[in-house]
User: What shape does this take?
Amino acid sequence: MSSKNYKRICLWSGPRNISTALMYSFAQRPDTVVYDEPLYGHYLNNTPAKNYHPGADEVLSTMETDGEKVIDMMMGDHPKEVVFFKNMGHHLLKLNTSFMRSVCNVILTRDPAEVIPSFAKEIENPSMVDIGFETQVNLLNLLNKMKAQVIVVDSNTILKNPGQELDKLCNTIGIPFFKEMLAWKPGPRPEDGIWAKYWYKNVHASNGFQPYKMREIILDETLQPLYQRAMPFYKQLMEFSQ
Assistant: This one.
């Protein structure tokens, strides 16, 4: 573990959220280095997800799959004073979570009605584990019990007013806000995970947070049971959102 005084931010997101856009946003800061899903290899190596996630073999062959070694890296030295780790909540599997007391934990969530159909376009028949809502509630409860710093943010709140909400988020984390966080150049970034070609098409086409558009979402009948199971967990998360 490093003895230097870094501000480490662990984003714990669900899939098909704005987590990649938020990573790109933090990458614009002059004081920040970002890492894309460092625990993904660990997750694939320890779950059946490796059998159906696109590009899983490539991920497993190029990433560290020992989660404890990944955490050692996260808590080690970095080239800048603010360190942002984009993580999926369900990647935190069978690991010692004591490090979370030493980081700022941000739980990023979104209405299941928007998450589920988007995720189902990439992976058929998603499960509760895949979409992450129950996992995020369990994580929130754990963090509160640990008395760790935790912030819950709804993606749509950021999309409706990026400047105001990112300013608020940075203030809560304890770092200054930079207006550069509101825009980036379109296209891939060097920090992108090797899986970007499967998941990041929309954010690669963007140059900032896309304005929120209210739209009617009609869930396929086969996805309705998953939505009904996810909604109570989403509502619990929203009770703690900033």
Observations:
- The beta strands are 7-13, 32-36, 82-88, 104-109, 150-154.
- The chain has one domain: 7-238.
- The CA atoms of residues 35 and 191 lie 6 Å apart.
- The radius of gyration is 17 Å.
